[in-house]
């Protein structure tokens, strides 16, 4: 059973819930309860991502993403060094595959500079020195501050730190079920009364917010991120991370190569419309809500050009041929037989502004009395988590 009351209740044990809880403790909070519906932290997006600490190239300076990613990158690296957690400062390149992508690459370069981060436009020759097998039609962008980490190790370190404080309890296998009254919630293991609440429920953050009658105009649509791997014998074809120039109208970065912290090279993730918030397999996670998810997909397909482009281009990546072709545009030496299956799969819970029928590009934080709802903590929220948590706690306490 959960304790009947607490001062601050945090819902969700992903990177956002854990870093928010840590921030509360750093500010002297005494009685924090974190509930998580799974048996351990990071069973969803936070433990299933690419493990890239993004440098902050993609985002315009007026966004939360730019504001928190750059500082978050620095702070997460510091945390890994302090705790002795795996961290590889690999850097990354973004390559223009065709002439039409060059102006977009230049825009990314401008955004990077406007955000005050180190980015360098390089030609084909310099690209060869960094990534001998990557291909570009003309230019590439080099970001030296991109790094890779082991997200699960970071989550475990945070969990240990929280539990050892003695001022916070984590209750696993405990789901938020609904609101009982203004300051009392029903969980799967009893009622809890709280003074303040933070909703960091990731893919279910809209469900929790709606129970509080907050964020009614938002809905979450799940997108499946599948990966493949490079056969270890072909691993030498990729030294760092190689990304395509993305379509800036949508929030996804395109299938890319990432050399992980343990040396393995993954290819992906895709961003294919999924049938459930936890639809990790073909049928796993498909349920009664799948019908309304399909309905939302259909409505958006008609109403939003950016969604239509994502849906049409991403669904094709289920085809091995198309996936290999995309990978080959970045690294032509990669052969079909070099690409092997990978069990990793994540779901990106993408927020939709349902009134405007648009995918939301930035993080959204709603304050409703003594409750804060963190919606749309999409990539790069793992990178951004520490300063983002600081902001969320500022809002809660203000
Ligand atoms: C495929 C993929 C690749 C990505 N790559 C990167 C990357 O390289 N770098 C980067 O910075 N970001 C990346 N991201 C984004 C990043 O992983 C997320 O932004 C981040 O993990 C979101 O954290 P969260 O805590 O909000 O969500 P989650 O990790 O999903 O945590 C939410 C938690 O809430 C719990 N929960 C839900 N409902 C309830 C309930 N009713 N009661 C109790 N608990 C509940 C869930 O079980 C879950 O543990 C990627 C994401 C995906 C999917």
Question: What do these coordinates show?
Answer:
The protein has 398 residues and is α+β, with helices and mostly antiparallel strands. The protein has three domains: 8-46 and 152-217 and 362-397, FAD/NAD(P)-binding domain (3-Layer(bba) Sandwich), CATH 3.50.50.60; 92-144, no CATH class; 219-354, D-Amino Acid Oxidase, Chain A, domain 2. The chain is built from ten helices and 22 strands. The chain has helices at residues 15-26, 64-83, 102-114, 124-130, 151-164, 205-211, 289-303, 305-315, 320-330, 381-397; strands at 8-11, 32-35, 52-53, 87-88, 92-95, 120-123, 139-143, 147-149, 168-171, 176-181, 184-187, 190-193, 196-199, 218-230, 241-244, 256-259, 265-268, 272-273, 339-353, 358-359, 364-368, 371-375. Strands 5, 6, 7, 14, 15, 16, 17, 18, 19 and 20 form a ten-stranded mixed beta sheet that branches. Strands 9-2-1-13-22-21 form a six-stranded mixed beta sheet, with helices on both faces. A three-stranded antiparallel beta sheet has the order 3-8-4. Strand 11 and strand 12 form a beta hairpin. Helix 1 (15-26) crosses helix 10, helix 2 packs across helix 10 (381-397) and helix 7 (289-303) packs across helix 8. The longest helix is centred in the first third of the chain and has 20 residues, at 64-83. The protein is globular and about 65 Å long. The relative contact order is 0.19. The mean pLDDT is 95. The site of flavin-adenine dinucleotide has 41 residues, from helix 1, strand 19 and helix 10.
């Amino acid at each position: 059973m959960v304790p009947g009351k607490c001062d601050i209740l945090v819902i969700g044990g992903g990177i956002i819930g854990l870093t928010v809880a840590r921030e509360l403790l750093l500010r002297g909070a005494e009685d924090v309860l974190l509930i998580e519906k799974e048996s351990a932290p990071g069973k969803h997006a936070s433990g299933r991502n690419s493990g890239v600490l993004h440098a902050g190239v993609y985002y315009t300076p007026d966004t939360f993403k730019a504001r928190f990613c750059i500082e978050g990158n620095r702070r997460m690296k510091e945390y890994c060094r302090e705790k002795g957690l795996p961290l590889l400062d690999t850097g990354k390149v973004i390559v223009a595959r065709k002439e039409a992508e060059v102006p977009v690459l230049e825009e990314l370069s401008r955004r990077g500079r406007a955000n005050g981060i180190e980015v360098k436009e390089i030609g084909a020759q310099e690209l060869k020195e960094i990534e001998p097998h990557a291909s570009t039609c003309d230019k590439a962008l080099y970001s030296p501050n991109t790094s890779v980490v082991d997200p699960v190790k970071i989550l475990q370190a945070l969990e240990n730190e929280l539990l050892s404080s003695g001022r916070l309890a984590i209750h696993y296998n405990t789901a938020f079920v609904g609101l009982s009254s203004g300051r009392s919630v029903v969980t799967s293991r009893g009622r809890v009364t709280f003074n303040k609440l933070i909703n960091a429920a990731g893919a279910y953050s809209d469900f929790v917010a709606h129970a509080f009658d907050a964020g009614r105009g938002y809905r979450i649509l799940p997108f499946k991120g599948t990966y493949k791997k490079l056969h270890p014998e072909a691993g030498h074809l990729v030294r760092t991370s190689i990304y395509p120039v993305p379509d800036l109208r949508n929030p996804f970065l395109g299938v890319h190569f990432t050399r992980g912290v343990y040396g393995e090279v993954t290819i992906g993730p895709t961003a294919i419309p999924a049938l459930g918030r936890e639809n990790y397999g073909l049928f796993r996670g498909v349920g009664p809500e799948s019908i309304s998810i399909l309905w939302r997909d259909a409505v958006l397909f008609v109403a939003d050009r950016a969604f239509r482009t994502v849906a049409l281009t991403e669904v094709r990546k289920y085809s091995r041929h198309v996936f290999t072709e995309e990978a080959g545009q970045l690294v032509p030496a990669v052969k079909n037989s070099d690409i092997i299956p990978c069990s990793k799969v994540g779901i990106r819970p993408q927020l939709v502004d349902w009134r405007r029928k648009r995918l939301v590009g930035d993080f959204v934080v709603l304050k409703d009395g003594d409750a804060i709802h963190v919606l749309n903590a999409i990539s790069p929220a793992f990178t951004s988590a520490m300063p983002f948590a600081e902001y969320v706690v500022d809002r809660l306490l203000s």
